Amino acid sequence: MGAKPTDAAPAFFSAEAIGGAFRAALVAAGLAFPILALRAEPDLNNQLVLLNRWPLLLWAAGIVFVGHLAAQIPHVGRILKWALFAGCTLVLVWILAGVANSNLPLRGKIALFTLIAASGFFGLLIAAPCAPGTPFHDFQKRARAFAGKIVGPIGIVALFAFPLVMLWTLGPGGSLKWINNYGVQILIYVMLGWGLNIVVGLAGLLDLGYVAFYAVGAYAYALLSTHFGLSFWLCLPLAGILAAFWGIILGFPVLRLRGDYLAIVTLAFGEIIRLVLINWTDVTNGNAGLSSIPRITFFGLPFTAADNGFAASFGLEFSPIHRNIFLFYLILCLALLTNVATLRLRRLPIGRAWEALREDEIACRSLGINTTSTKLTAFALGAMFGGFAGSFFAVRQGFVNPDSFTFLESATILAVVVLGGMGSQIGVALAAAAMIGGTEILRELDLLKAIFGPDFDPAQYRMLIFGFAMVAMMIWKPRGLVSSREPSIFLKTRKSVSASHVREGHG
Amino acid sequence: MSEPLLTVRGVETWYGNIVALKGVDLDVREGEIVTLIGANGAGKSTMMMTICGAPRARSGSIRFAGLEISQMPTHEIARLRIAQSPEGRRIFPRMTVYENLQMGAAIDKFAHFDDDLERMFTLFPRLKDRARQRGGTLSGGEQQMLAIARALMSRPRLLLLDEPSLGLAPIIVRQIFQIIRELNHREGLTVFLVEQNAFHALRLAHRGYVMVNGLITMSGSGEDLLARPEVRAAYLEGGH
Ligand SMILES: Nc1ncnc2c1ncn2[C@@H]1O[C@H](COP(=O)(O)OP(=O)(O)O)[C@@H](O)[C@H]1O
Ligand SMILES: [Mg+2]
């Protein structure tokens, strides 16, 4: 913490520093030995043979050695920040060059280029790690405050414009990937993150089984629509109610639990739901899952090439992109609904009670707050939004099976919330974009294939990279990307008296 | 004389198989300041928390305003307007002073929040200066004031205070005790004060009880107890 006196750290390249680096390298080699140096592989006769990979181990130890020494360089933190900044600038230039060299139509090129250049350079300007106290830093401070104010509205406008801009610049074929793989996929996790944020971020109840409610919503839509022919718009609230009901079922037994015990029970709950889905084959069709779930329609008009389809009715040429654009807007609206509901609830007594509950349960009770019902509403509402997202998932895929609802999903959603900064809405959205978008980008990085050979699949290193990202976050931003908590003012008490009190004081 | 506001009779409280209160009797009348003093570990905090229902009394009776409350859930007891500033203050550290005070008004559905806020800021001007500061960043004295103000926001009929002087500079302790005295004097607020700081507590209180190992061993008016040699020897001389 704070600035440590320079003479306390061993001088750069002193015998002491080299000895320390050597010890660290030894420890790393010892820890990595079973993972890196040994590998069991089946040989031609399909028998396992133990291979040793000493060079890999040496490389790892060497990297630790050099890294440890490098950490002793004076001002290494500042240097790293500037290096990161330079890296970001290079990536931006690289993207811009890619846009300029792409085979897009000229109008698309110009539009995309200007947009990325303007927002990229503004971002770099306010993110540059300038030393505090310099005039530029003051400018950055004001620019950051300004950016903080406009990022919400601009983001929403940009999101609504996104699929149309993509369609316009890239055409139906080229834009599919962006709208579906990036847009819809990220927004699902934004919504799930916001839903879980009610339980974990606001009420402070660590829930490791959130995917159970996602599953309940998905199967609810799948079963209700295939068996009873109910429309999506009817199934959506029903799925939400069912998920909320299961949220309360989970809530009751865990009312007295907190922290790690609560986490374990919710984890088990998530697994129970998945096992039920696998084994209750009469209803859920087990591992094979449910298929031929009715697809989304445009308020009754199917997205097909038929004469009564969406494209024909609006005089458009049929394209599968229409369905994807509609799905994009649907999940965007659902996610925004989650957000608006959360922001609104935070300003109501129940939202304030959740936050107080997170801080101190005993104090809450002594202030007359019924902690039982407060917790149950948090579970129920969080679960409801998970259920909404689940039915969206089912209507998008047209197929559900238990494999989509493993613990890894819960962990990813929780990681989105934690990385985003518990309780921060914008942080959760950014974290979802980084994690899910990052996975998609990894899938596409042919550059890495060129370096590591053709069988290198970067997406397999996803978890490793997330792991590093998590560790780095815990070191540099232990409270998440956006850690500040906005104090909220009640809707009810906005008389001038209270407002004047609130403006006073600093903090 | 009519029934006291709070009547505690034969209350026993256990933590698992350890007995903390071994049959306590005490009364708090409307408009009184009553203090409970005793050494560390005597069971004072347990007494206060038992009134609030957490932990629950294993036997005996606790009556408040004519109602038996010993089996009620904590939040319902609080809704009868028994407010407390618990041991260690327990303010909400990441919420602002303003939000902490809002939580105090939760049981009234914020009906007279603005008026009460104004009143608290007159009583504790320092809180007004710090309205937007996070509770956790306040000084010890300010946190104690916030804990009391938060309790007062519910317009309590009985205010329970557990060691408000703990860890505070003498001048702050005097300020806080002065405010309690004023509240009692001007508004007739009934206060049950748990203290180790026996000298200040007994000077402030109308009546006092002395607790030793989960039992009341002495009781009497504040001045009376202050004058008794046993009290002086055990709780006053040797520093407080
Ligand atoms: N939560 C608890 N679990 C078990 N024993 C407790 C608990 N709280 C207090 N005690 C015990 O009860 C006795 C009375 O404690 P307490 O009421 O806190 O005393 P005081 O407030 O007078 O210092 C002590 O012996 C203490 O160790
Ligand atoms: Mg105590």
Structure explained in plain terms:
The complex is a heterodimer of chains A (507) and B (240). Chain A is globular. The two termini of chain A are 21 Å apart. Chain A has 19 helices and four strands. Residues 1-8 and 491-507 of chain A have low confidence and may be disordered. In chain A, helix 5 crosses helix 11 (321-346), helix 12 (349-359) crosses helix 14 and helix 15 (407-420) packs across helix 16 (425-444). In chain A, 70% of the residues lie in helices and 3% in strands. Chain A has 507 residues and is mainly α. With 240 residues, chain B is α/β, with parallel strands linked by helices. Chain B has two domains: 1-81 and 158-240, P-loop containing nucleotide triphosphate hydrolases (Rossmann fold); 90-156, no CATH class. Chain B has helices at residues 44-51, 74-79, 97-104, 113-123, 125-129, 140-152, 170-187, 198-204, 222-227, 229-236; strands at 6-15, 18-28, 33-38, 59-64, 67-68, 82-85, 158-162, 190-195, 207-212, 215-221. Chain B has a six-stranded mixed beta sheet, sandwiched between helices. Chain B has a four-stranded antiparallel beta sheet with strand order 2-1-4-5, with helices on one face. In chain B, helix 3 runs parallel beside helix 6 (140-152). Chain B is globular, with a radius of gyration of 17 Å. The A-B interface holds A 349, 352-353, 355-356, 359-360, 362-371, 485, 487-488, 490, 492-493, 495, 497-498, 501-502, 504-507 and B 52, 54, 73-76, 78-79, 83-84, 86, 90-99, 102-104, 106-107, 109-110, 113-114, 117-118, 121, 128-134, 137, 150, 154. Bound molecules: adenosine-5'-diphosphate and magnesium ion. Adenosine-5'-diphosphate binds at residues 15, 18, 20, 38, 40-46 of chain B.
